[in-house]
Protein backbone atom coordinates (compact mmCIF):
# COMPACT_ATOMS: atom_id res chain seq x y z
CA UNK A 1 0.00 0.00 0.00
CA UNK A 2 2.82 2.39 0.93
CA UNK A 3 4.44 1.79 -2.44
CA UNK A 4 1.22 2.45 -4.28
CA UNK A 5 0.75 5.66 -2.39
CA UNK A 6 4.25 6.90 -3.08
CA UNK A 7 3.95 5.97 -6.79
CA UNK A 8 0.70 7.87 -7.02
CA UNK A 9 2.32 10.90 -5.38
CA UNK A 10 5.29 10.88 -7.79
CA UNK A 11 3.04 10.43 -10.79
CA UNK A 12 0.80 13.32 -9.73
CA UNK A 13 3.77 15.63 -9.21
CA UNK A 14 5.31 14.64 -12.55
CA UNK A 15 2.10 15.27 -14.43
CA UNK A 16 1.69 18.58 -12.60
CA UNK A 17 4.96 19.82 -14.12
CA UNK A 18 3.49 19.19 -17.58
CA UNK A 19 0.23 21.02 -16.99
CA UNK A 20 0.01 24.08 -19.29
CA UNK A 21 -3.38 25.56 -18.46
CA UNK A 22 -6.23 25.53 -15.98
CA UNK A 23 -8.27 23.03 -17.97
CA UNK A 24 -5.58 20.31 -17.81
CA UNK A 25 -5.02 21.17 -14.17
CA UNK A 26 -8.70 20.55 -13.47
CA UNK A 27 -8.43 17.22 -15.35
CA UNK A 28 -5.53 16.24 -13.11
CA UNK A 29 -7.58 17.13 -10.05
CA UNK A 30 -10.44 14.98 -11.30
CA UNK A 31 -8.13 12.05 -12.04
CA UNK A 32 -6.35 11.98 -8.69
CA UNK A 33 -7.99 14.14 -6.04
CA UNK A 34 -11.74 13.89 -6.64
CA UNK A 35 -13.87 11.50 -4.58
CA UNK A 36 -13.75 8.87 -7.26
CA UNK A 37 -10.15 9.71 -8.25
CA UNK A 38 -7.14 7.43 -7.78
CA UNK A 39 -6.24 8.72 -4.35
CA UNK A 40 -9.84 8.36 -3.21
CA UNK A 41 -9.88 4.72 -4.36
CA UNK A 42 -6.67 3.99 -2.42
CA UNK A 43 -8.02 5.71 0.69
CA UNK A 44 -11.18 3.63 0.58
CA UNK A 45 -9.19 0.42 0.25
CA UNK A 46 -7.41 1.13 3.55
CA UNK A 47 -10.29 -0.52 5.39
CA UNK A 48 -9.23 -3.90 3.96
CA UNK A 49 -5.81 -3.77 5.67
CA UNK A 50 -4.89 -5.23 9.05
CA UNK A 51 -5.15 -2.79 11.97
CA UNK A 52 -1.37 -2.19 12.20
CA UNK A 53 -0.79 -1.67 8.48
CA UNK A 54 -3.94 0.44 8.26
CA UNK A 55 -2.64 2.89 10.86
CA UNK A 56 0.76 3.43 9.20
CA UNK A 57 -0.66 3.58 5.67
CA UNK A 58 -3.49 5.85 6.83
CA UNK A 59 -1.06 8.43 8.23
CA UNK A 60 0.99 8.33 5.05
CA UNK A 61 -2.11 8.56 2.86
CA UNK A 62 -3.37 11.64 4.71
CA UNK A 63 0.01 13.38 4.48
CA UNK A 64 0.16 12.72 0.73
CA UNK A 65 -3.41 13.88 0.27
CA UNK A 66 -2.63 17.18 2.03
CA UNK A 67 0.60 17.67 0.04
CA UNK A 68 -1.08 17.05 -3.32
CA UNK A 69 -3.99 19.30 -2.49
CA UNK A 70 -1.60 22.12 -1.52
CA UNK A 71 0.35 21.71 -4.77
CA UNK A 72 -2.86 21.74 -6.74
CA UNK A 73 -4.05 24.97 -5.05
CA UNK A 74 -0.68 26.65 -5.69
CA UNK A 75 -0.82 25.78 -9.37
CA UNK A 76 -4.43 26.94 -9.58
CA UNK A 77 -3.51 30.34 -8.12
CA UNK A 78 -0.71 30.69 -10.64
CA UNK A 79 -3.00 30.01 -13.59
CA UNK A 80 -5.74 32.33 -12.33
CA UNK A 81 -3.21 35.17 -11.89
CA UNK A 82 -1.83 34.59 -15.39
CA UNK A 83 -5.31 34.50 -16.81
CA UNK A 84 -6.22 37.88 -15.31
CA UNK A 85 -3.04 39.37 -16.67
CA UNK A 86 -3.73 37.99 -20.10
CA UNK A 87 -7.19 39.52 -20.52
CA UNK A 88 -6.84 41.49 -23.72
CA UNK A 89 -7.31 45.24 -23.34
CA UNK A 90 -9.24 47.12 -25.97
CA UNK A 91 -7.40 50.43 -26.03
CA UNK A 92 -10.04 51.99 -28.26
CA UNK A 93 -12.74 51.79 -25.55
CA UNK A 94 -13.44 55.01 -23.58
CA UNK A 95 -11.72 55.00 -20.15
CA UNK A 96 -13.57 54.39 -16.89
CA UNK A 97 -14.95 57.71 -15.63
CA UNK A 98 -13.27 58.94 -12.45
CA UNK A 99 -15.69 60.23 -9.82
CA UNK A 100 -14.48 63.52 -8.33
CA UNK A 101 -15.76 65.02 -5.09
CA UNK A 102 -16.51 68.72 -4.98
CA UNK A 103 -17.28 71.46 -2.53
CA UNK A 104 -20.71 71.87 -0.96
CA UNK A 105 -22.55 75.07 -2.04
CA UNK A 106 -22.34 76.49 1.49
CA UNK A 107 -18.59 75.91 1.54
CA UNK A 108 -18.33 77.74 -1.81
CA UNK A 109 -20.02 80.83 -0.35
CA UNK A 110 -17.98 80.52 2.85
CA UNK A 111 -14.72 80.36 0.88
CA UNK A 112 -15.69 83.37 -1.20
CA UNK A 113 -16.38 85.45 1.91
CA UNK A 114 -13.28 84.18 3.72
CA UNK A 115 -11.15 85.28 0.73
CA UNK A 116 -12.72 88.73 0.84
CA UNK A 117 -12.34 89.23 4.57
CA UNK A 118 -8.78 87.91 4.83
CA UNK A 119 -7.85 90.34 2.03
CA UNK A 120 -9.26 93.09 4.31
CA UNK A 121 -7.07 91.94 7.21
CA UNK A 122 -9.68 89.94 9.15
CA UNK A 123 -8.72 86.75 10.96
CA UNK A 124 -10.91 83.66 10.73
CA UNK A 125 -11.96 82.02 13.99
CA UNK A 126 -13.75 78.81 14.76
CA UNK A 127 -15.94 78.43 17.86
CA UNK A 128 -17.68 75.71 19.88
CA UNK A 129 -21.02 74.47 18.58
CA UNK A 130 -21.82 73.21 22.07
CA UNK A 131 -21.97 76.52 23.93
CA UNK A 132 -22.82 77.71 27.40
CA UNK A 133 -25.99 79.63 28.09
CA UNK A 134 -23.74 82.44 29.30
CA UNK A 135 -21.87 82.98 26.01
CA UNK A 136 -24.84 82.35 23.76
CA UNK A 137 -27.28 84.61 25.61
CA UNK A 138 -26.35 86.27 28.91
CA UNK A 139 -23.02 87.81 27.84
CA UNK A 140 -24.73 89.02 24.66
CA UNK A 141 -27.08 91.18 26.72
CA UNK A 142 -29.88 88.61 26.88
CA UNK A 143 -30.23 87.66 30.57
CA UNK A 144 -32.38 84.70 31.61
CA UNK A 145 -35.60 86.66 32.06
CA UNK A 146 -35.22 88.79 28.91
CA UNK A 147 -38.06 88.50 26.34
CA UNK A 148 -35.46 88.39 23.53
CA UNK A 149 -34.79 84.77 24.56
CA UNK A 150 -38.02 83.93 22.75
CA UNK A 151 -36.46 84.96 19.44
CA UNK A 152 -34.12 81.97 19.39
CA UNK A 153 -35.09 78.65 20.95
CA UNK A 154 -32.53 75.85 20.84
CA UNK A 155 -31.61 72.35 21.99
CA UNK A 156 -30.41 72.06 25.58
CA UNK A 157 -28.13 69.34 26.89
CA UNK A 158 -29.86 67.22 29.49
CA UNK A 159 -27.25 67.74 32.21
CA UNK A 160 -27.43 70.20 35.09
CA UNK A 161 -24.46 72.23 36.33
CA UNK A 162 -23.51 72.45 40.01
CA UNK A 163 -26.15 75.16 40.57
CA UNK A 164 -28.86 72.82 39.25
CA UNK A 165 -29.28 74.67 35.92
CA UNK A 166 -29.23 73.43 32.36
CA UNK A 167 -26.47 75.62 30.99
CA UNK A 168 -25.16 73.75 27.94
CA UNK A 169 -26.88 74.22 24.60
CA UNK A 170 -26.31 74.07 20.85
CA UNK A 171 -25.44 77.64 19.85
CA UNK A 172 -28.17 79.53 18.03
CA UNK A 173 -25.79 81.99 16.39
CA UNK A 174 -22.08 82.62 15.83
CA UNK A 175 -22.31 85.78 18.01
CA UNK A 176 -20.99 84.08 21.23
CA UNK A 177 -17.59 84.17 19.54
CA UNK A 178 -17.69 87.98 19.84
CA UNK A 179 -17.26 87.60 23.61
CA UNK A 180 -14.80 84.70 23.45
CA UNK A 181 -12.60 86.57 20.94
CA UNK A 182 -12.56 89.82 22.95
CA UNK A 183 -11.66 87.89 26.10
CA UNK A 184 -8.89 86.01 24.34
CA UNK A 185 -7.37 88.66 22.03
CA UNK A 186 -8.41 92.01 23.56
CA UNK A 187 -8.48 95.00 21.17
CA UNK A 188 -7.95 96.03 18.41
CA UNK A 189 -9.68 93.12 16.73
CA UNK A 190 -10.95 92.22 13.25
CA UNK A 191 -12.41 88.79 12.76
CA UNK A 192 -14.98 86.61 11.08
CA UNK A 193 -16.46 83.38 12.43
CA UNK A 194 -18.08 81.02 9.94
CA UNK A 195 -19.90 78.10 11.56
CA UNK A 196 -22.83 75.86 12.18
CA UNK A 197 -25.77 76.99 14.30
CA UNK A 198 -28.89 75.28 15.58
CA UNK A 199 -32.42 76.31 16.45
CA UNK A 200 -35.49 74.51 17.65
CA UNK A 201 -37.54 75.44 14.59
CA UNK A 202 -40.58 74.01 12.91
CA UNK A 203 -38.67 73.41 9.68
CA UNK A 204 -40.00 74.69 6.37
CA UNK A 205 -38.56 75.79 3.02
CA UNK A 206 -36.63 78.66 4.69
CA UNK A 207 -36.00 77.33 8.21
CA UNK A 208 -33.74 74.45 9.20
CA UNK A 209 -32.82 73.23 12.67
CA UNK A 210 -29.18 73.26 11.53
CA UNK A 211 -27.77 76.04 9.35
CA UNK A 212 -24.64 78.14 8.80
CA UNK A 213 -23.87 81.72 9.74
CA UNK A 214 -20.88 84.00 9.44
CA UNK A 215 -20.20 86.55 12.15
CA UNK A 216 -18.03 89.64 11.70
CA UNK A 217 -16.57 91.76 14.49
CA UNK A 218 -14.33 94.81 14.43
CA UNK A 219 -13.26 96.44 17.70
CA UNK A 220 -10.92 99.43 17.96
CA UNK A 221 -10.99 103.07 19.03
CA UNK A 222 -13.50 105.24 17.14
CA UNK A 223 -15.32 102.56 15.19
CA UNK A 224 -18.52 104.10 13.86
CA UNK A 225 -21.56 103.46 11.70
CA UNK A 226 -19.81 104.66 8.54
CA UNK A 227 -17.23 101.85 8.97
CA UNK A 228 -20.04 99.34 9.25
CA UNK A 229 -21.78 100.66 6.18
CA UNK A 230 -18.64 100.54 4.09
CA UNK A 231 -17.84 96.92 5.09
CA UNK A 232 -21.35 95.82 4.24
CA UNK A 233 -21.22 97.61 0.88
CA UNK A 234 -17.98 95.83 -0.02
CA UNK A 235 -19.52 92.47 0.90
CA UNK A 236 -22.65 93.09 -1.20
CA UNK A 237 -20.62 94.12 -4.24
CA UNK A 238 -18.39 91.07 -3.91
CA UNK A 239 -21.34 88.71 -3.59
CA UNK A 240 -23.79 90.20 -6.06
CA UNK A 241 -21.77 92.44 -8.40
CA UNK A 242 -20.39 96.03 -8.42
CA UNK A 243 -23.77 97.72 -9.09
CA UNK A 244 -25.26 96.34 -5.85
CA UNK A 245 -26.64 98.96 -3.46
CA UNK A 246 -27.09 98.67 0.31
CA UNK A 247 -29.83 100.03 2.50
CA UNK A 248 -29.87 99.77 6.28
CA UNK A 249 -33.12 99.65 8.20
CA UNK A 250 -33.46 99.64 11.98
CA UNK A 251 -33.84 96.23 13.62
CA UNK A 252 -33.55 95.10 17.21
CA UNK A 253 -30.73 92.76 18.20
CA UNK A 254 -29.97 92.86 21.94
CA UNK A 255 -26.19 92.88 21.46
CA UNK A 256 -25.91 95.90 19.14
CA UNK A 257 -27.02 99.51 19.49
CA UNK A 258 -28.17 100.79 17.07
CA UNK A 259 -29.08 97.56 15.32
CA UNK A 260 -30.16 97.21 11.73
CA UNK A 261 -30.89 94.89 8.86
CA UNK A 262 -28.64 95.24 5.83
CA UNK A 263 -30.53 94.80 2.57
CA UNK A 264 -29.06 94.63 -0.95
CA UNK A 265 -30.65 95.43 -4.27
CA UNK A 266 -31.91 92.18 -5.75
CA UNK A 267 -29.22 90.62 -7.98
CA UNK A 268 -31.82 89.08 -10.25
CA UNK A 269 -33.95 92.12 -11.13
CA UNK A 270 -31.42 94.85 -10.14
CA UNK A 271 -33.97 96.39 -7.80
CA UNK A 272 -36.94 96.44 -10.18
CA UNK A 273 -38.92 93.81 -8.27
CA UNK A 274 -39.23 90.07 -9.01
CA UNK A 275 -40.11 86.66 -7.56
CA UNK A 276 -36.82 86.32 -5.66
CA UNK A 277 -37.17 89.67 -3.81
CA UNK A 278 -40.95 89.32 -3.48
CA UNK A 279 -41.31 92.40 -5.70
CA UNK A 280 -39.59 94.70 -3.21
CA UNK A 281 -36.35 95.08 -5.19
CA UNK A 282 -34.40 94.40 -1.97
CA UNK A 283 -33.02 91.27 -0.29
CA UNK A 284 -32.62 91.11 3.51
CA UNK A 285 -29.17 89.65 3.97
CA UNK A 286 -27.34 90.72 7.10
CA UNK A 287 -28.04 91.63 10.73
CA UNK A 288 -25.65 94.28 11.96
CA UNK A 289 -24.98 97.17 14.32
CA UNK A 290 -22.54 98.84 16.68
CA UNK A 291 -21.48 96.58 19.55
CA UNK A 292 -23.51 97.27 22.71
CA UNK A 293 -21.41 98.68 25.61
CA UNK A 294 -22.48 95.78 27.89
CA UNK A 295 -21.15 93.31 25.33
CA UNK A 296 -17.79 95.10 25.21
CA UNK A 297 -17.72 94.95 29.01
CA UNK A 298 -18.55 91.21 29.00
CA UNK A 299 -15.61 90.81 26.62
CA UNK A 300 -13.36 92.58 29.15
CA UNK A 301 -13.05 95.87 27.22
CA UNK A 302 -13.78 99.40 28.40
CA UNK A 303 -16.67 100.86 26.33
CA UNK A 304 -15.39 104.37 27.12
CA UNK A 305 -12.20 103.55 25.22
CA UNK A 306 -13.28 101.03 22.58
CA UNK A 307 -16.15 100.75 20.19
CA UNK A 308 -17.05 98.04 17.72
CA UNK A 309 -19.20 96.93 14.85
CA UNK A 310 -20.69 93.49 14.33
CA UNK A 311 -22.61 91.77 11.59
CA UNK A 312 -24.01 88.29 10.95
CA UNK A 313 -24.95 86.61 7.66
CA UNK A 314 -26.94 83.44 7.20
CA UNK A 315 -24.57 81.53 4.90
CA UNK A 316 -27.25 78.95 4.17
CA UNK A 317 -29.74 81.57 3.03
CA UNK A 318 -27.01 83.29 0.98
CA UNK A 319 -26.32 80.03 -0.83
CA UNK A 320 -30.07 79.67 -1.48
CA UNK A 321 -30.17 83.09 -3.10
CA UNK A 322 -26.97 82.77 -5.04
CA UNK A 323 -27.78 79.34 -6.50
CA UNK A 324 -31.56 79.74 -6.80
CA UNK A 325 -32.36 76.95 -4.32
CA UNK A 326 -35.98 77.09 -3.21
CA UNK A 327 -35.84 74.78 -0.19
CA UNK A 328 -33.26 75.02 2.61
CA UNK A 329 -33.76 71.33 3.49
CA UNK A 330 -31.88 70.23 0.35
CA UNK A 331 -28.54 71.29 1.86
CA UNK A 332 -28.39 68.54 4.44
CA UNK A 333 -30.48 65.96 2.66
CA UNK A 334 -27.44 64.09 1.35
CA UNK A 335 -29.29 63.91 -1.96
CA UNK A 336 -26.63 63.39 -4.64
CA UNK A 337 -28.93 64.64 -7.41
CA UNK A 338 -28.97 67.99 -5.62
CA UNK A 339 -25.28 68.08 -4.67
CA UNK A 340 -23.98 67.07 -8.10
CA UNK A 341 -25.31 70.32 -9.58
CA UNK A 342 -22.54 72.38 -7.96
C1 LIG B 1 -28.69 86.57 14.42
O1 LIG B 1 -28.53 85.35 14.58
C2 LIG B 1 -27.65 87.55 14.88
N1 LIG B 1 -26.66 86.87 15.66
C3 LIG B 1 -27.03 88.29 13.69
C4 LIG B 1 -26.24 89.49 14.10
C5 LIG B 1 -24.89 89.40 14.32
C6 LIG B 1 -26.91 90.71 14.28
C7 LIG B 1 -24.17 90.52 14.71
C8 LIG B 1 -26.20 91.83 14.70
C9 LIG B 1 -24.85 91.71 14.89
P1 LIG B 1 -30.92 86.30 13.11
O2 LIG B 1 -31.66 85.53 14.13
O3 LIG B 1 -31.68 87.26 12.29
O4 LIG B 1 -29.72 87.07 13.75
O5 LIG B 1 -30.17 85.25 12.16
C10 LIG B 1 -29.24 85.68 11.20
C11 LIG B 1 -29.43 84.90 9.90
O6 LIG B 1 -29.31 83.52 10.16
C12 LIG B 1 -30.81 85.05 9.29
O7 LIG B 1 -30.89 86.21 8.52
C13 LIG B 1 -30.87 83.82 8.41
O8 LIG B 1 -30.17 84.04 7.21
C14 LIG B 1 -30.10 82.83 9.23
N2 LIG B 1 -31.03 81.95 9.94
C15 LIG B 1 -31.62 82.14 11.15
N3 LIG B 1 -32.40 81.11 11.47
C16 LIG B 1 -32.33 80.22 10.45
C17 LIG B 1 -32.91 78.94 10.18
N4 LIG B 1 -33.70 78.35 11.05
N5 LIG B 1 -32.61 78.33 9.02
C18 LIG B 1 -31.77 78.91 8.12
N6 LIG B 1 -31.17 80.10 8.32
C19 LIG B 1 -31.46 80.76 9.46
TrEMBL record:
GO terms for cellular component: cytoplasm. It comes from the Bacteria. Its EC number is 6.1.1.20. Its cofactor is Mg(2+). Binds 2 magnesium ions per tetramer. Pfam families: Phe_tRNA-synt_N, tRNA-synt_2d. Residues 109-321 form the Aminoacyl-transfer RNA synthetases class-II family profile domain. Keywords: Aminoacyl-tRNA synthetase, ATP-binding, Cytoplasm, Ligase, Magnesium, Metal-binding, Nucleotide-binding, Protein biosynthesis. Gene3D superfamilies: Bira Bifunctional Protein, Domain 2. InterPro entries: aa-tRNA-synth_II (IPR006195), aa-tRNA-synth_II/BPL/LPL (IPR045864), Phe-tRNA-synth_IIc_asu (IPR004529), Phe-tRNA_ligase_II_N (IPR004188), Phe_tRNA_ligase_alpha1_bac (IPR022911), Phenylalanyl-tRNA_Synthase (IPR002319), tRNA-bd_arm (IPR010978). SUPFAM superfamilies: Class II aaRS and biotin synthetases, tRNA-binding arm. It is found in: Cytoplasm. Its main location: cytoplasm. The keyword Signal does not apply. Mg(2+) binds at residue 257. Tetramer of two alpha and two beta subunits. PANTHER family: PHENYLALANINE--TRNA LIGASE, MITOCHONDRIAL, PHENYLALANYL-TRNA SYNTHETASE. Belongs to the class-II aminoacyl-tRNA synthetase family. Phe-tRNA synthetase alpha subunit type 1 subfamily. This is Phenylalanine--tRNA ligase alpha subunit. It comes from Candidatus Falkowbacteria bacterium CG10_big_fil_rev_8_21_14_0_10_37_18. The gene is pheS.
Amino acid sequence: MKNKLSQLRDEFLRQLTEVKDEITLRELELKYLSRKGELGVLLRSLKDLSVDSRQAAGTMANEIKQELQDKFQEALKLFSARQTKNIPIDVTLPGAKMAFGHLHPITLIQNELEDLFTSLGFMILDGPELESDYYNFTALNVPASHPARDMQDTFYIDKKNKDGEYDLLLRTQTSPMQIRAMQKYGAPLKLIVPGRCFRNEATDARHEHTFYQMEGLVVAKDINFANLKSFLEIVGQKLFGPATKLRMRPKFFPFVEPGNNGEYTCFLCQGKGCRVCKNTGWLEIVGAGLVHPSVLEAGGLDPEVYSGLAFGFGLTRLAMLKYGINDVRFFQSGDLKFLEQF
